[in-house]
């Protein structure tokens, strides 16, 4: 196997975390399908992450805008980002709503327990 074909440790961790998010999302989708949940998948995921310590979740940029910085070594909570099309749309091609044609990137959130006020 060549160096370009080998996965880095970071890429392996990324794939593992994505697979964990997929598994949690299946549970959330099942609850929505069964009618026991009226929230979105991401709202359900954030609910799963919420506990006595972790109550408020924002992205790195959102925390920064509020005057906070993420503590070094903090591990993010994952939810799904806005979908992106796999293929570039052509002028005469109409977009589809199929999830199979879309790529859902990961969105990294940090909780109130993982941030501290920025020094002024």
């Amino acid at each position: 196997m060549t160096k370009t074909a080998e996965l880095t440790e970071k890429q392996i961790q990324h794939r593992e975390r994505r697979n964990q998010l997929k598994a949690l999302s299946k549970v959330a989708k099942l609850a929505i399908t069964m009618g026991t949940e009226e929230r979105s998948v991401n709202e359900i995921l954030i609910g799963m992450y919420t506990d006595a310590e972790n109550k408020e979740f924002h992205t790195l940029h959102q925390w920064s805008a509020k005057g906070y910085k993420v503590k070094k070594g903090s591990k993010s909570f994952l939810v799904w980002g806005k979908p992106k099309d796999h293929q570039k749309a052509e002028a005469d091609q109409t977009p589809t709503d199929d999830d199979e044609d879309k790529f859902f990137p990961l969105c990294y959130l940090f909780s109130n327990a993982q941030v501290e006020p920025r020094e002024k």
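The radius of gyration is 18 Å. Helices lie at 9-33, 41-49, 60-65.
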